[in-house]
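User: Quick sanity check before I run a bigger batch. Here is a single chain. Can you write out its predicted 3D structure?
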Amino acid sequence: MAINKLENGKWRHDYRVDGVRRYKQFRTKAEALAHELQINTAKSGGTLIDARKGGKIRFHELYVEWLGRIERVGANGQRPASPVTVAGYRRVYERHMEKHFVNRTLAGVTLTVINEWLTTFATDDARRRAYRQLGRMLQYAVDSGYLAANPARNATINNVPTPSPIREPAALTAGQLMALAEQAAGGGRYAGQSHEAYRLLILFAGTTGLRWSEVSGLKAGALTFGDDPRVIVRSTLVPVDGRLEFRETTKGRKPRTVPIPASVARELEVHVEGLVPGALVFTSPSGTEMRSSNFSRRVFHPAVKRCGEIDPTFPEVVFHDLRRTAVTLAVSAGANVKLVQQIAGHSSAVTTLDVYAQLFAHDAQASARAVDALLTGGGA
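Assistant: Done. Predicted structure follows.
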């Protein structure tokens, strides 16, 4: 790199970006030296790029490249993203991004353009999810050297409010779980009919903490009975572009073993008697795979409504709250954090403590009282 004085009295700074020669003219030598310092700093920090790349690459080309990487190695470059995650990214792009950005270059996706795009959304939730994905895509462009900065991560964008939670997560007591299970066995679309399998499904989910995809994808061979009843969670049934597909890995990508309460295990053992190891444990009345939307609309929510009519204090719960119910019951029974981690299916006990901190806070106070009893001689 060099700074030279030209015949017209101006100063020119010659430098290279990605092996390509660049030059820029300045009125004074001081301005040229300041630019040289800026270039050297950018080089040492690894942020020097050819800004013209952003004017050549179209947004759709970036999307194809970014999504391909997500499919191959995931966002963190460690493992491929699940088909559900990829389908979700594709859906957001097709619904909310494509018609606004498809013909633009990356350099044309400016702060003003982004703010105008954000005004087109009908809901804050859709706006926030799309904006988050745009930020990830443009950050990939920055990391790939296509852009110098990410305009979707600019503090001056202030019209992406965090949606207020529609409802607080809830947990059922043991009695409420039993009541919900009983109501799920009849009523709703199946009023006047007995569906004990749905009663058992609710009890199983509310005591093991399995996710819906894990419950609906559970196969008979994953269950072990006897003195130590347990379930090995290793398969899920997930919707991908409208189709249900089996995946032999769970959300954490590793099988996990979860204990089953003996009373639930006894009913479950009778329920799966005669099933081959690869058969689904829970199915629809016609024997097919279950969809979350159908089960919620036809069975779960009607059962919750009937419970509320009988008991006005019964909380408004969704199926996912059965995970919280399982954790709450385990903590109330004195389970340690590692067991709760198994039930919740978290990759780290730290995550478990973060998510269920208030439950363990109560447990910690009980522990402190027990220690105090020992110190004062009341618990010897």
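The mean pLDDT is 81.

User: Great, the batch can go ahead then.
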